[in-house]
């Protein structure tokens, strides 16, 4: 694909951007470089290669303790008035419709 003046004017019109001639020329050169880089990637033949979403392992390094099951349910409900047979009842989020 060739980036020419007509294509550049169409892109700027669609993006609702107005630029001077010098800025247009600079952006056209940048777009040509970007397309050239993508051309090299296309030549590598990576059609059957799965993308590497996280090539470096992402781990939560700030958490040092291990999660464990909390077994004392009564301690959770000690300060709540809304305990009903082991369940926590919260306020209604919307009024019922009549």
Architecture overview:
The protein has 98 residues and is mainly alpha-helical. It has a domain at 5-43. Helices cover 40% and strands 4% of the residues. It has three helices and two strands. The chain has helices at 5-15, 21-43, 73-77; strands spanning 83-84, 87-88. A two-stranded antiparallel sheet has the order 1-2. β1 (83-84) and β2 form a beta hairpin. 0% of the residues are buried. The model has no long low-confidence stretch (mean pLDDT 81).
Annotation keywords:
98 residues; mainly alpha; two-stranded antiparallel sheet; 3 helices; elongated
User: Hey, roughly how much beta strand do the residues contain?
Assistant: under 5%
* Order of strands, widest sheet: 1-2
Largest sheet at a glance? 2 strands, antiparallel
Structural class: mainly alpha
Number of strand elements: 2
SSE series: HHHEE
The end-to-end span amounts to: 63 Å
| Arithmetic mean pLDDT | 81
What low-confidence regions span 5 or more consecutive residues with pLDDT below 50? Answer: none
* Shape call: elongated
List the total number of helices: 3
Radius of gyration computed on alpha carbons = 30 Å
Secondary structure: helix percent: 25-40%
What is the compact description of this entry?
The chain has 98 residues and is mainly α.
Strand and helix map with partners:
Blueprint lengths: L4 H11 L5 H23 L29 H5 L5 E2 L2 E2 L10
